[in-house]
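Quick one:
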Amino acid sequence: MANNIITTIKEKRYEVLMPKEDRALLKGLYLLRSYSGYEDPVRNYITQCLDQLHIPYVNYNGNILGFNYPGRPLFSAHMDMINTEGYILSPGEIAVDGFFTVDSKTNIRLYRDEEHKRQTSLGADDKNGIWTILTLLKNGQDINFAFCHSEEVGGTGSQQVISNTKLAEFIEGCQYGIVIDRRNEWDIIGYNNKYCLALDDRLAAFAKDNGFKFTPANGSCSDADKFSRILECVNLSCGYYEAHTSKEYTNLNELWNTYLFCKKMLESFQYKSVSEKRMKKFKNISSYSSSYSSYSSSTYPKYSWQKEKEESVEDSVEDSVQKKTSQKTTTQIAGTEHTIEDYDISMNEIVAKEYLSKAMEDGATYVTDLESYLIPLYTEEAIPKNTQPNDIVLTYDCPSCGKPVSILVDTVDTLFTCWFDKSQDKAIGMCTGCHGAHGGAEFEDKLNFISY
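Output:
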């Protein structure tokens, strides 16, 4: 009887294509903690790199901007990361004493202990984007750049940038925009998210012609939601996975491919964005400079985050909520007392058009004067045409008009990526039909059915 032959096949080990010098830059970023509202460690790291490269920049409300090449493309990434462990930084602490591992597939992970038992987030979302832009600049690419704060808590940094008239005029004149803030290897988030009219298709064709596999895909919100109000842009994959968790990792070769694709794009890709007017029409908005909350590391309690009203918000917003005297509920939000109508919040016509339109565009939107997220409740006739049955996560009757209304999966994605933190008392639903709005305990019970 023949002996059994056991063949051991060793797992193939892939070569790390990224040069050691560039890996050192990436690891330096990964070790820094840059939680939303406390981006100073990464902000200082970026400015030190720019100073060494003798590249001009400005610090605009905590956003690091380099608008040095009129008409050239705009590249953007965000500086903040989600605190996946609730880790409290001690005074003066800006980094972790981490230990890196790279497996046979070139996936890099970060641990807090030498035994590799306590994995922690890399902050690859979106330090991978920062690294790509810095590496392009280091290698002499003539690009405009915007490193923005507070993307993970609503994109207020990028909103500040586009709300400045002079900055907006410069951005509109750029060839196109590239936001590098997408998981996976080959995604181009564009037309399907209303970021562009044709840029994603043109980039996909260019990628195919040059040996890359980038193709159009759907995605959740990013700073591209803001910049695309005045400039066609896309959000590119940059090789990170398990974002917003302590198990996050990056495939180094996939990130290196993103850099090579951007480099090739800058060398020979030609495209000119349509006008701001056409982008507004495409996105069905009247203005890019809508109300927003402001985040600044100087306004935060030490190593924690909170929302603060921006002084530049229009005074008319103060009248946007018509408060009634009956059936009021008091809840605690961000340490302050906040009073809302339990089932009948009456909003004026401006708010119904401005805030609801934005909520439908982004999935949900943070309303400063309510200190709450406004969630669009779609009547049957208002549900987008391409919505599939499994995109509807909850349907019930609107308390105001009695029509069936639905919450879509886009809302769930937005609440998750914008650090909603499962605090249902920060949520108000608004009917797309009658514009009736409601919150409080009954709405919380409905949201409890949603897992996100």
